[in-house]
Give the backbone structure.
Amino acid sequence: MFFLTREEQIHFRILIAIVIICGIIYLISEPATISIKDLAVQGEDQLAIHITPDNEIEIKNLSRTGKTKPNYVIINSSSFEELLVCPGIGEKKAKQIIEEREITPFVDWRDLQDRIKGISSNQVNILKEAGIQINASDSNNDR
């Protein structure tokens, strides 16, 4: 058996107290972080991670079935991957949208229809119902 002198016991208790205090300080001061595992989504949903020009990270939960949440996909600013989530927009239309908006951002839904081949009034209604917008500041760009 191992025995400690009275002085060694005091030093050992102080050492244990320091370790506990350091652990508490670490837990209190740790910055708020979220693990990617905590962001996992179920079913056919997917996450879109986008880095803004200001180097901020935006994480959006998007659905492959076209049931996107309002304000999540904005035609004038969304990435190629985010546009692919929109119902009826495939790789060809997404690429066309990005090319056209680089020339001039879309003003409204009519402008989108005029400049992108294959987008009908019916498809515009489907996109609106899915919560997709032309601009972030507009409430669904009903024009």
